[in-house]
Design goal:
The structure is a homodimer of 145-residue chains. In chain A, a hairpin with a 5-residue loop joins strand 2 and strand 3. In chain A, 25% of the residues are buried. Chain A has 145 residues and is mostly helical. The longest helix of chain A has 33 residues. Chain A is built from six helices and three strands, in the order H-H-H-E-H-H-E-E-H. In chain A, strands 1-3-2 form a three-stranded antiparallel sheet. The two termini of chain A are 39 Å apart. The interface between A and B is large, with 43 and 44 residues. Chain A binds a DNA duplex (30 and 30 nucleotides) through helix 5.
Amino acid sequence: MSKPSNTVVTIAENESVEEEKNLKLILDRAKDQSKLCPVRDVIHRISDKWSLLSILALGTHGTLRFNALKKEIGDVSQRMLTVTLRNLEEDGFVSRKIYAEVPPRVEYQLTDMGQGLMQQALQLADWANTQLPAIISSRKKFKKG
Amino acid sequence: MSKPSNTVVTIAENESVEEEKNLKLILDRAKDQSKLCPVRDVIHRISDKWSLLSILALGTHGTLRFNALKKEIGDVSQRMLTVTLRNLEEDGFVSRKIYAEVPPRVEYQLTDMGQGLMQQALQLADWANTQLPAIISSRKKFKKG
DNA sequence: GATTTATAGTTACTTTTAGTAACCTAAATC
DNA sequence: GATTTAGGTTACTAAAAGTAACTATAAATC
């Protein structure tokens, strides 16, 4: 695809720029289509660093205020917890109840759908727990070999 | 850890530097402890953009060569697929079989443990499929309100 | 015999995302 | 009147992901 840089710019070259633009459009469209795949959509949304952990924390503790949740998870930053909770709220997994008090009080809770997601997360977590020894020994082997 | 360069270094300043170091050690230790949590460990490892999708693709197709897997996933870059597969191999979810041929041939397959992970991923995917309409409508509501 | 093709990478670079530190609000307490 | 509190936001830095170009090598093609 790379052109020799010291050639005269011709009409043909301008046309190839047009072609490149068209190709980019087609690729972008293809990308959007693949994004419509439901599995991919949801997996990408909850496959970030904090979503499942937040869901698990809320699920096991019921209602939690922001800082309590933050403390529960431990090493999440304030900003990332805010971002994560907004996303989970947007998707309908978490409900957010604001009390008009000072200092502010905001309570987070799983919705019914959030409870469903937690069931899934719990199964994953259970399975992770049972497999961890095997995973750790596999990691050690990999580093040696 | 940078010191102001144009101040006189006093004993008091050295002490505060020491304190900072100690605090950092404590924080690092706390972080490591939280990282020992098995659920967190495994979830963080597979909660990247391509791990679950790779597992699902390998699970539904059996053995796949690198480019076939890449094509199957669609919009993953070569580099990220390599990185993802190395991680999955390291954790013992995926096996990698190299044939000494030219052009090179490398076959990827789920291990038994990988199949277990796929079961989990499948359940998550199934659930995601059933919930998607509710999720999408929740997103629309969120944008409006 | 030079050129092209194929596959599974790696390397260097750019862009996007996550994480950190400092700040804001406004009533209650010391 | 300075400090504490809870739940943020903003501006900045570090890390992760993505892109483009390159590698190796034998067989097939011109």
